[in-house]
Specification:
295 residues; alpha/beta; 2 domains; five-stranded parallel β-sheet; three-stranded antiparallel β-sheet; 26% helix
């Protein structure tokens, strides 16, 4: 390995740079004059130019940023996406405690792919409270369908799938709660009964008619915040067979196809837990064991 301090030789190498360190944007030539930033560069509403903001993507970053902008008094347009949702609390506890205890986060990567057909984006989870699309609409955020590109006349185009996105998030939340309910019943746990979450029961306030396209200037939009996901930047890794055609690691449970190479911190590397802080100790132990056995 060539570094700024020269060439280093090692029997084993653990690449722990993660695979969510490079923002991904759709290819779209937006009208000139719009400031564009990625979710990773957003700090606060005060740092953005005056005017309305278009947030593209309604996962955790997009929804949280849209909510903060709305609370700061900004007019916000949110181009939604097909993302699940989690309540912040359920049956008397933070929902993450239930997900860890019930084994929900231990579901294997291959099982997730079998059920969803692919690795899905992480479900929307508010930091301190539940955030939902319908809740954001009730706060005044203008909800749109998926961002579909730029039309010939420069207008921004959106798909007609907003209601589908709201329905999908509702169903995802209900499915997770059902999973937890079954675990509570099976384990004989004395837990409080479920109570309605205001963020999930509030009526959806949707644009009528639905917004399929808009002129950024006429709508007062001065900034676009791209919340369209991340991928890993492994361009510095130059070993044949280590990366797939898209430049992402080829591995099984963090163990690369090439002997002596390991990847740590990859999202969904082994289970739902992979890629979040809860998996660090478990993953490190597994990789170290593999290194010791094969050294």
């Amino acid at each position: 390995m060539t570094t700024s301090r020269g060439t280093l030789l090692a029997r084993n190498v653990v690449i722990a740079s993660g695979n969510l360190n490079c923002p991904v944007r759709p290819v779209a030539a937006l009208p000139p004059g719009l400031r564009q930033i990625d979710a990773s560069d957003y700090r606060s509403a005060a740092d953005l130019p005056a005017g309305a903001v278009l947030v593209v993507g309604s996962g955790q970053s997009g929804a949280q940023i849209a909510e903060e902008l709305a609370e700061a008094g900004r007019r916000v347009f949110l181009a939604t996406s097909r993302v699940g949702r989690l309540s912040r609390r359920y049956r008397g506890r933070d929902i993450m405690l239930w997900l860890v205890e019930s084994g929900f986060l231990d579901v294997r990567r291959d099982e997730i792919i079998r059920l969803a057909g692919r690795i899905p984006p992480r479900g929307l989870l508010g930091v301190e409270h539940t955030i939902s699309l319908q809740g954001l609409g009730a706060q005044g955020v203008v909800l749109l369908g998926r961002f579909a590109g730029v039309e010939d006349d420069g207008r921004l185009s959106f798909a007609d799938d907003l209601e589908e996105h709201i329905r999908f998030a509702n169903e995802a939340s209900a499915n997770v709660k059902r999973y937890i309910d079954e675990y509570i019943s099976r384990s004989g746990i004395d837990a409080p009964v479920s109570e309605p979450d205001p963020a999930e029961t509030v009526a959806a306030q949707l644009p009528n008619p639905a917004v399929r396209s808009l002129d950024a200037a006429e709508s007062g939009i001065t900034t676009v915040v791209w919340c369209t996901g991340f991928r890993g930047d492994f361009s510095w890794v130059r070993l044949s067979g280590l990366l797939d055609p898209e430049g992402q690691p080829v591995h099984e449970d963090g163990v690369a196809a090439l002997p002596g190479i390991y990847f740590a911190g990859l999202d969904f590397a082994s289970t739902r837990k992979s890629g979040i802080i809860l998996a660090i100790a478990e993953e490190a132990h597994r990789l170290v064991e593999h290194i010791v056995r094969h050294s």
